[in-house]
Amino acid sequence: MKRAKFDLFMSLSRQRSVQVLILIGFLYVVLVGFEVPFVFRNGFSLVSQDGFGTGQFSKSSVLDSEEELADKKAPIRPLFDVPLQVPPIQSSKPERNIREIKNPLSSLFFDGSFVNMTSKDGFSGILKSAKEAFEVGRKLWKELELHKKEVGFLESNNNKTIEQCPHSISMSGFDFQGKGKRMMVLPCGLTLGSHVTVVGRPKRAHQEHDPKISLLKEGQFLMVSQFMMELQGLKTVDGEDPPRILHFNPRLKGDWSGKPVIEQNTCYRMQWGTAQRCEGWRSRDDEETVDGQVKCEKWTRDDDANHSEQSKASWWLNRIVGRKKPVSFDWPFPFSEDKLFVLTLSAGLEGYHINVDGRHVTSFPYRTGFALEDATGLSLNGDVDIDSVFAASLPTSHPSFAPQRHLDMSNRWKAPPLLSQPVDLLIGVLSAGNHFAERMAIRRSWMQHRLVKSSNVVARFFVALHGRKDINVELKKEAEFFGDIVIVPYMDNYDLVVLKTVAICEYGVHVAFAKNIMKCDDDTFVRVDAVIKEVNKIPENRSLYVGNINYYHKPLRSGKWAVTYEEWPEEDYPPYANGPGYVISSDIANFIVSEFDRHKLKLFKMEDVSMGMWVEKFNSTRHVQYVHSLKFSQAGCVDDYYSAHYQSPRQMICMWNKLQQQGRPLCCNMR
Ligand SMILES: *[C@@H]1O[C@H](CO)[C@@H](O)[C@H](O)[C@H]1NC(C)=O
Ligand SMILES: *[C@@H]1O[C@H](CO)[C@@H](O)[C@H](O)[C@H]1NC(C)=O
Ligand SMILES: *[C@@H]1O[C@H](CO)[C@@H](O)[C@H](O)[C@H]1NC(C)=O
Ligand SMILES: *[C@@H]1O[C@H](CO)[C@@H](O)[C@H](O)[C@H]1NC(C)=O
Ligand SMILES: *[C@@H]1O[C@H](CO)[C@@H](O)[C@H](O)[C@H]1NC(C)=O
After folding, report:
1. Cα-to-centroid distance, 505 and ligand 1 (Å)
2. Pocket test for ligand 3, best of 306, 307, 310, 314 (most atoms within 8 A of CB)
3. Of the residues 570, 618, 619, which should be mutated to test ligand 5's pocket, given the most ligand atoms within 8 Å of the CB?
4. 298 in Cβ contact with 283 (< 8 Å)
5. Which ligand places an atom closest to the C-alpha of 124?
6. Ligand 5 centroid vs 623 CA: distance in angstroms?
7. Does some domain include residue 638?
8. Do 424 and 356 lie in a common domain?
9. Contact at 8 Å (CB) between 476 and 487?
10. What is the pLDDT of residues 156-183, one digit of tens each?
11. Exposure string (b/e) for 436-466, b if CB count within 10 Å is 16 or more?
């Protein structure tokens, strides 16, 4: 009650101050008149900065009333918000027609039927996963369409906001196995640094008769002792098994290898991934690590059973005698029948880490498609008795709050309609479903440029579908409201971003009729007029490829981002412009789209290298002018940039304000 009153008071006082502002704005207009646009511009950006600062806090009480708010602010929004009034470019060509495009779905069509699923060719790997991703995407999209009919959006969202996000949860073994149905619900998922501790005791081996596990003929059996700990995404899908974001399966007895092992895996839409097996050997030194930890630690195997007892003894002996020689001590398999264990699972930067009895045992890198906040259930099944389960350092805010908090559903940020004649530039921004804050920051910053507002430059976000339904629901709503999102209907996957690049070309050629096409990321700040100016230096009618171009780069053949010889057989990459900001001419885009439609386009998981490869091929028939400029900054921001990379939402707003207030491209080096 108290809170509601407070809100009421706040909104009353806001109304009053808005009225005062209107009055001041009106006086301002009368006194200063229309002859000093410079002053106007500065005044505006001050207001917009202010609006950004308070917008986040007032959001919850304001959700239903932006229309009103936008109207009240109208007297002091002279330049940018009313696209149809001001821009001189437009009024000089009054005959331009406007097109309305309602459907946010990309018209890029991926024909999966031609993909050879048995081919071992390195380039066909990506086609196989593209085919699968589009199939899943089709289902996801269908679900979304149905969802709209079933429930109103607001209703389904309102209920979620009631759910509490505890910082920690503890359950006794009795509650866990009885009422909890061997499941601990983590209402708001996990976050970086969250950890779950399980105290339990593996049961003695039992006779396994399930032929699927024992792989033996009927009447025969195997002695098996194993258990499964899983992080499940309880909220991501309706009507089917929840995805297993982490499946941790110690097999004390009964694995086909005859040795105790730990298997780890993920399972999405009932499809298991590739298992990571730890069999007692330490991961090789050249294998990728997870936050600096190896994926598998060594433990003593039966094959050297005596060794363990010996080394334990000699280790102690050496300590007592005081030898300096380093002695390695081998630990046994971390679980044994009927013995208590304390297992801790923690969420690191790069993956999950599992410690047993205080010792690191395995690490499992995160797989694409899932965020930590998706892990909303911990289950423990199999041959194990649970004493207690604790989860702590859990996130204290529900992730589904996030989209609403970041989006400002105000008409002023809507994309202006497309014109029915060619535009100078299409800027395609690669984005991910849950990057609501990033997209909003771009809308509030460089997408407010007058060239974008007048539709001479068109900017669109290219987003694929997310594994989580509620994110897709929000995304679709966002797309329908702002009109600046193109949804490429496949299940998002980092190795498939190249498909979004093709979708950008398709949109540029078939929808926006753009003369040139720029690709950037949602952490790229673009100086729209500077890019156009740079491109216009090249005589019209030339094919062009402008960006921060790498010559003679070689694929990394080892380490985390390794590219195999199957994926890229040649020693060098073709010359290619860095991904966060480059421009191609529409004839190149047209070539790319038609090759794609004819199933002739080679796809490589690095989208910028792919573009280099396609432009090189195009150049063999028609000369392309390559323009290299470091001002398409790759590693961050340089003063006098054309585009700047790795910019956070706050930096975007800061850079835009600097550009408006000081008229110069300056960096904002805060985080
Ligand atoms: C698919 O690839 C396999 C292996 O490269 C090849 O033997 C087979 O003929 C291909 N099938 C088609 C339809 O191209
Ligand atoms: C929201 O909650 C109300 C009451 O708590 C319930 O009647 C309604 O069915 C819920 N809506 C949804 C979509 O779950
Ligand atoms: C263990 O040690 C005993 C005696 O020292 C020996 O007979 C046996 O072969 C050893 N076993 C293994 C697996 O090395
Ligand atoms: C542009 O190039 C095309 C073909 O290369 C040519 O037909 C056309 O006349 C050129 N236009 C101009 C304005 O140079
Ligand atoms: C483009 O083609 C021309 C010949 O038509 C060639 O001289 C040039 O090296 C090519 N550029 C690149 C970057 O491949």
Report:
1. 30
2. 306
3. 619
4. no
5. 1
6. 7
7. yes
8. no
9. yes
10. 455 444 567 899 999 999 999 887 789 9
11. bbbbbbbbbbbbbbbbbbbbbbbbbbbbbbb
381 and 485 share one domain:
no
Tell me the longest C-alpha to C-alpha distance in the chain: 98
For atom 3 of ligand 2, which residue has the closest CA?
159
Residue span of the structural domain in which 347 resides: 169-211+220-300+330-392
Helix (H, G, I), strand (E, B) or coil at 571: coil
User: Which protein residue's CA is at the shortest distance from atom 4 of ligand 1?
Assistant: 119
- Does residue 385 sit in the same domain as residue 411? no
* Shared-domain flag, residues 382 and 289: yes
- d(C-alpha 265, C-alpha 273), whole Å: 6
Q: Are 354 and 426 found together in one domain?
A: no
Strands 384-392 and 195-202: antiparallel
CA of 116 to the centre of ligand 1 (A): 6
User: Considering only CA atoms, which residue is closest to atom 4 of ligand 2?
Assistant: 159
- Taking alpha carbons only, the member of 192, 173, 170 closest to residue 182 is 173
Measuring from each residue's beta carbon to the nearest atom of ligand 5, which residues come in under 6 Å? 575, 616, 619, 623, 626
Q: Are strands 169-172 and 359-365 parallel, antiparallel or unpaired?
A: unpaired
With a pLDDT cut of 70, the percent of the chain lying above it is: 73
Pairing of strands 423-431, 457-465: parallel
CATH code, domain with 194: 2.60.120.200
Q: Which ligand lies nearest to the CA atom of residue 549 in the structure?
A: 5
156 CB near ligand 2 (under 6 Å): yes
Indicate which CATH number applies to the domain containing 482: 3.90.550
Cα dihedral 322, 323, 327, 333, rounded to 10, equals -30
Model confidence at 240, pLDDT cuts 50, 70, 90, reads low
User: Do 292 and 254 belong to one domain?
Assistant: yes
- CA–CA gap between residue 577 and residue 515 (Å, rounded): 19
Q: Are residues 457 and 351 in the same domain?
A: no
**Can you tell me the distance from the alpha carbon of 63 to that of 67, in angstroms, rounded to the nearest whole number?**
10
Q: To the nearest whole number, what is the mean pLDDT of the chain?
A: 79
Main-chain phi, psi angles of 602, to 5 degrees:
-80, 130
Ligand 1 atom at shortest distance from the alpha carbon of 119: 2
Residue type, 500: K
383-395 residue pLDDT tens:
999 999 999 999 8
8 Å CB contact between 415 and 483: yes
